[in-house]
Amino acid sequence: MVLAPFSSPAWCYASVAALASSLISVPLNGFVLLSFLRDRHLQTPFGVYIIILMISNLAWVIFKQTLDIINNLYFYYWWLGEPLCKMYKYGTYVYSGVILYLHVLITANRIWAITFPVAYRNYHSKQTAAILCLAVVVFVNVVALPAYIVDLSYYALPATIGCYIDIISVWGWLFLAQVVVYDLPVIFVAAAYPWLLIQYKTQRRTDLHRLETLAKGPTGTTKRMLKIEAAGSSGYASDSREAPPPPPGEKFKGPATVRLPASEGATKPRRRRVSSRAFLVISFLTASIIVCWGPTQVYTTIMMFTLQENKTADEVCFVLYVVQSVVDPIAFIFVLRDLRQSVHDRLRRWARVFRCV
């Protein structure tokens, strides 16, 4: 039985939310991407992950989310033709998985920086980051494409009754892709965060204790590690030990200098901001994964076993799902000072140009 197509689009709050998310996401991700491509000081090894993530978000919004909106508006009818239906199905299998695994790379990057800081500084380059991103794209395609190929070759439904995946016919391949490509990244990011939180708090306590010790005056080995700078009347001492890994979006600028009042009674050291910014990035991205992607993956995994959809749960998960592409650029702009300044300066220049016109 062929169902008659809707004569007019069937709008719902999920479709409205997806459309609003698309209109916000494209300029946000575009601004962040343009800033990284135009400003060389942002093009660090870690910046490569952000560049690829912004490109993936844009591709997902333009080629997948837009077709999602159309598919939901004209339920049981696809009027865009077979080629676009194939592209839409490919995006359903692959695009989201690439975005999830890029978040995994960012989390793994922080774990590497904390666990092996020397190796991180020596071996983590822009080329290394690009190779890891390429490996993620290849891995997701290798795992997800068998279900796509089998579905397309043997079980594809006519586009005239809707562009959908026949879950029952490709259940085995689809379940493999769901667990490996979608469920495992969410589990990894969520499980890694408590460890990163413990490491951050431990490092912060250690640094504060070290700085308090140095503030009391150089003795023993600490005396050899300090160099007294001629800072005029300010009288500051600086700790010239090797710096920790740089935060996301900032270049490694050599030895860290922790300036301390040279007076004997000063016991309140200045706090470092490097690890704080890096930890804020991970905190925002982990929250976006858990809140935006977690419910969707739980619901989809359960649905694959029950083969029953819940309309309310489906729409709620869809709204959370589409909001993710807005959260990522906001998190980077909010946390990374250099990126925020770059976006602000570019907007000011454009505003002046428009006023002149």
What does this structure look like?
This protein is mainly α and 357 residues long. The protein has a single domain, classed as Rhodopsin 7-helix transmembrane proteins (Rhopdopsin 7-helix transmembrane proteins), CATH 1.20.1070. Helix content is 71%, strand content 3%. The chain is built from ten helices and three strands. A three-stranded antiparallel sheet has the order 1-2-3. A hairpin with a 7-residue loop joins strand 1 and strand 2. The radius of gyration is 25 Å and the shape is globular. It starts with 12 loop residues before the first helix and ends with a helix. The N terminus is likely disordered.
Q: How many DSSP-defined strands?
A: 3
Instruction: Output the strand order for the largest sheet.
Output: 1-2-3
**What do the pLDDT scores average to?**
78
Classified in CATH, the superfamily is Rhodopsin 7-helix transmembrane proteins
Find the structural class using helix and strand composition: mainly alpha
Helix content: over 70%
Computed CA radius of gyration, to the nearest angstrom: 25 Å
Q: What CATH architecture label applies? A: Up-down Bundle
Number of domains: 1
Largest sheet: 3 strands, antiparallel
Q: Segments where pLDDT lies below 50 for 5+ residues?
A: 1-6, 223-244, 252-274
The proportion of residues in beta strands is under 5%
